[in-house]
């Protein structure tokens, strides 16, 4: 189960051996494919019996322990609760700043998770539904415009603007309106996602080019300035002034930025910083807290839109490719949501109606199985061992980057049987749920580091499906990549059009751009249906 080429000194031949291993693994896949497709291929190529193995291809990557066995995955993220690996922080620092909630560990992580948790309470999320419906209607309007022009567009770009608009409200109570016009903070964010080490393995110098370094610094400033201004404005409001007893403060919405300010005020009450603060006029926020709050808001803006947008794209894609599933979801909407015209208002008036859309939820769950947007990366610890569920033998984690690639787990035939690669939403119906493999489905991970935004993502995905599948026919247009090639998006980069362009016949394979995104942003044609 240990795959490495280690002939001993001189190190040069070891590096050459590692390059050869990676070269032979990568030769059958498109250059830009998301690394999470690789573990299953390694297993097959090297006849590895277990569903976990060590891979050491230093210096191309950290020594790794790949895990796509459900039981071992559960040990890694839940039972042993291994901490986040430092590479996560190296990645997130460019998007969020130092100490973000996704990559940090220990008391700092715990503090911020506790502060932000109320923002994801079920009652609060339901109150967001009308706003999400409004944003989704703008998305539908954009689809009508694309249909009228008969043009091919990148669905992922549209879905991203939608999810960004939603997350703007959730985090900052702001209408970013990126579906209507560009927004400087979002533009900086989008560029930053493309400047982080996505294709690092292919281009190790990518992070060291002066132009890239400058752009990352500039984007960081734009994002900090924008969010900092919103934070300061909210802090300056009369009802936010620290030192005022909590009961006397006006009840605020549970948006992230206010939750952070609330925490700040509670923390300050009676403390040293409060004394310093009440003496300044107007009161000023402690600089360290301000920096940390901006980092967390940036974290939520990133984590809260990137993953959900690609899930929306893949759900619409899988429905196109599976007409019987499309018929069934449309029928469910006919039965529960009335006519296409009245559905948006119906959902706004009674958000709980979403709970009746069982099959729609199954479509989203199955989409997340086949096309998971993320994975889990942990750091091994001295003396902390994983245990083989079959043999009971223990193996070390120390010095390894422990990776649970959800794609490999969710498509592992040992876990999901012969239908591992088949789109079958009905496996998630209540009557079939007992047959689901234990711990084999974890698109949002499990345990204390599970996804804080999962319920919000599921609400968003169901709403957008409820408002689109009966109104539009979507058709992926990978046959016409030239048409959107001048749209100025990152996907338009011609470098990636060379060489192999499908993964075992699948053209819409995932690539790594922040999270797992559809290749080329999923070029699409759309027609209005009703
Ligand atoms: C379909 C959409 C989404 C998917 C597939 C997804 C997936 C995940 C996964 C797998 C993790 C755990 C990563 C790990 O264990 O290393 C995670 C964590 C996280 N997600 Fe999501 N996510 C989604 C949507 C969202 C949304 C909408 C938000 C915010 C509004 C969000 C915010 C976060 C945050 C802050 C964390 C870190 C939590 C912690 O460590 O305490 N995610 N997500």
Automatic annotation (TrEMBL):
Q: Which UniProt keywords apply?
A: Heme, Iron, Metal-binding, Monooxygenase, Oxidoreductase, Signal
Q: Which SUPFAM superfamilies match?
A: Cytochrome P450
Quote the record's binding site residues for heme.
451
Q: Quick one: which pathway?
A: Secondary metabolite biosynthesis
Fetch the InterPro entries from UniProt. Answer: Cyt_P450 (IPR001128), Cyt_P450_E_grp-I (IPR002401), Cyt_P450_sf (IPR036396), Cytochrome_P450_monoxygenase (IPR050121)
Q: Enumerate the GO terms in the molecular function aspect.
A: heme binding; iron ion binding; monooxygenase activity; oxidoreductase activity, acting on paired donors, with incorporation or reduction of molecular oxygen
Q: Does the keyword ATP-binding apply?
A: no
One Pfam entry name: p450
Q: Which cofactor does it need?
A: heme
Question: What parts of the sequence cross the membrane?
Answer: none
Q: Does the keyword Glycoprotein apply?
A: no
User: What Gene3D superfamilies does its record include?
Assistant: Cytochrome P450
Which CDD domains is this protein grouped with?
Answer: CYP59-like
- The organism's place on the tree of life at top rank: Eukaryota
The protein's name is Cytochrome P450
């Amino acid at each position: 189960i240990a795959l490495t080429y280690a002939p001993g000194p001189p190190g040069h031949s070891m590096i050459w051996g590692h390059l050869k291993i990676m070269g032979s693994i990568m030769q059958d896949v498109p250059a830009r494919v998301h690394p999470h497709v690789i573990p299953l291929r390694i297993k097959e190529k090297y006849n590895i019996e277990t569903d976990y193995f060590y891979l050491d291809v230093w210096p191309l990557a950290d020594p790794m322990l790949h895990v796509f066995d459900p039981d071992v995955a559960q040990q890694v993220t839940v039972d042993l609760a291994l901490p986040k690996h430092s590479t996560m922080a190296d990645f997130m620092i460019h998007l969020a700043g130092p100490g973000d909630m996704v990559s940090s560990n220990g008391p700092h992580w715990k503090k911020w998770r506790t502060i932000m948790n109320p923002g994801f309470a079920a009652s609060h999320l339901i109150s967001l539904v009308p706003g999400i419906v409004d944003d989704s209607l703008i998305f539908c309007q954009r689809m009508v415009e694309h249909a009228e022009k008969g043009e091919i567009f990148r669905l992922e770009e549209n879905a991203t603007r939608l999810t960004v608009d939603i997350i703007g409200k959730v985090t900052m109570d702001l209408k970013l309106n990126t579906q209507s016009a560009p927004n400087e903070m979002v533009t900086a964010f989008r560029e930053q996602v493309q400047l982080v080490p996505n294709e690092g393995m292919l281009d190790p110098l990518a992070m060291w080019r002066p132009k890239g370094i400058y752009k990352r610094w500039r984007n960081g400033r734009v994002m900090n300035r924008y969010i900092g201004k919103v934070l300061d404005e909210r802090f300056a409001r009369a009802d936010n002034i620290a030192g005022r007893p909590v009961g006397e403060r006006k009840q605020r919405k549970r948006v992230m930025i206010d939750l952070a300010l609330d925490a700040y005020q509670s923390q300050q009450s009676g403390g040293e910083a409060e004394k310093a603060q009440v003496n300044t006029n107007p009161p000023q926020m402690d600089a360290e807290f301000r920096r940390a709050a901006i980092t967390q808001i940036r974290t939520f803006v990133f984590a809260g839109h990137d993953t959900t947008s690609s899930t929306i794209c893949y759900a619409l894609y899988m429905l196109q490719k599976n007409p019987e599933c499309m018929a069934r979801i449309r029928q469910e909407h006919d039965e529960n949501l009335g006519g296409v015209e009245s559905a948006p208002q119906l959902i706004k008036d009674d958000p709980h109606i979403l709970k009746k859309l069982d099959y729609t939820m199954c479509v989203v769950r199955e989409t997340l199985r086949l096309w998971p947007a993320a994975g889990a990366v942990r750091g091994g610890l001295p003396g902390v061992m994983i245990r083989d569920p079959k043999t009971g033998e223990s193996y070390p984690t120390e010095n390894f980057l422990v990776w649970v690639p959800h794609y490999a787990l969710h498509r592992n035939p040992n876990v999901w049987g012969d239908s591992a690669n088949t789109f079958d939403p009905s496996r998630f119906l209540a009557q079939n749920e007992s047959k689901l493999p234990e711990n084999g489905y974890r698109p949002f991970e499990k345990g204390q580091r599970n996804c804080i935004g999962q319920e919000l993502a599921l609400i968003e995905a169901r709403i957008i499906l409820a408002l689109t599948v009966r109104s539009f026919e979507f058709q992926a247009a990978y046959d016409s990549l030239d048409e959107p090639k001048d749209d100025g998006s990152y996907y338009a980069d011609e470098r990636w059009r060379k060489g192999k362009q499908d993964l075992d016949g699948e053209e819409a394979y995932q690539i790594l751009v922040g999270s797992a995104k559809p290749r080329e942003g999923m070029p699409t044609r759309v027609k209005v249906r009703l």
